[in-house]
Fold:
Amino acid sequence: MKAYDIIIIGGGIMGSASAYYLTKADPAIKVAVVERDPTYARASTTLSMSNVRIQFSLKENIQISQYAFEVLDRFETEMAVDGNRPKIYYHREGNLFLVDAANKARARDAFELQKSLGCRIEWWTPQNIRDAFPLYNTGGFLGGTYGPDDGHFDAYAALMGYKAKARSQGAEFLQGEVAGIATRSGRVTGVRLAAGASLTAPSVINCAGAWAAQVAATAGVHLPIVPVKRQVFTLDTAVKPQGPLPLTVLPSGLYFRTETGGVILLGKSMAEDPTGFHFSWDDKRFMEILWPELAEFVPAFDRLKLVRGWAGLYAVNTLDGNAILGQWPELEGFFLANGFSGHGLQQAPAVGRYLAELVLKLPITLDLSIFGPKRILAQKPLSEGGLV
Structure:
C-alpha cells in the first residue's frame, strides 16, 4: 500500500494540468496520477477538434477562456523540460458563429457580455462574412460573431507538455484502472486498483472524463454525467478555400474548419447521438445528413472526398452542460473536475489551477465556485443564455 497526499484519477488534459498546478504550487507534495490507458487512444483530449474560444455567454466560462489564451501563448516556454519545448501549433484562425433571426437576441447578449469583459469580438454583417470567406452562402443569416483570438492547437502535444512538466516537478504517473474509491467516516482514504493494489491519500480528484460517473459511483456519489458519442469527418474538397477557414458554426450546430494539409474537419452534435462507450463512426451520417447542409452553406463543397472519420466522447452534464468543480459536499476530500460537455480541453488550464488552489487551501485566483457540486444535489442548473 503506497501513500500519497493527492491521487488524481485520469491522466488526460484535466488530470495532467491539475498535477502540474499542484506540484508547481507545492513541490513537496506527493501526487499520483492514475491513468488506465497511457496511449490515450480513446481519451476525449486526443479525439477532439482542439478548439479554444472566447465565445460563451456565462461570465466565468469567458474568463476561463481568457486565461487559456494567456497560457497557450506562453505554453511552449513554460512547459520546457531540460531545454525540450513542446510544440503545440497554436493557430489563432478565429471562430465564426452564424446568427439567424431565432438566435439574434441571445447572440447579441453574449456579444455585449464578451465586449464588457475586454474580449476581442466582432459583429459581422453578411457582407463582412462574404468578403472574408467568399465561398460562404450567407442567405438566411443576419450575420455572425467573429472571435479573432479563437483558434485551435495540437491537443496531444499540450497533454504531453503538461504531463512531462508535472512529472519533472515530482508527480508520479501510474498505469492502472481505479476499481473503487475507498472511504471511511464521510471522507476519502484512497483508491483501489483493478489489479489489486491500494493507494492511500486524504484527497482524491476525479478527472476521469467520460468515465467520471462510473468512478464517482464507487464512492456512492451519483453525477448527472453520461458519455455521448461525437463524430468528426475529414474531407478533401475539390475547391480549396483561398486561406484557412475559421471554426465556423451554424445555428443548427454544424461546425467545420480547415486543418493542416488543406482538408476540412466537420462535425455536428445531434440529439440522437448515442450514449455509452461507442467509438465507431458512420459514413452514412455524413453522406445523408451533414453533406447536404454543408453544401447549402458552401456550394463549392458539393464535390469532395470523405477521407476518414473518427468518434470520441463528450462527458455531458445532463443538468446544465457546464462543469462540475469542487469538493463533493457529502464526502470530504473528494474533488470533482467533471461534466465539461465538450469544453474540457480549453478549460483545463483554469480548472487545473483552481483545483490546486482548492485542494491546497490557497488564495483563489479566479473564483469558479459557480460550478460547485452543491447545485447537483439541489438540482439547480446554471443558465448559459447564449452559446453552449
In short: The first helix runs from residue 13 to 25. The chain is about 30% helix and 25% strand. The chain has two domains: 2-80+154-224+319-378, 95-150+226-315. The chain has a mean pLDDT of 96.
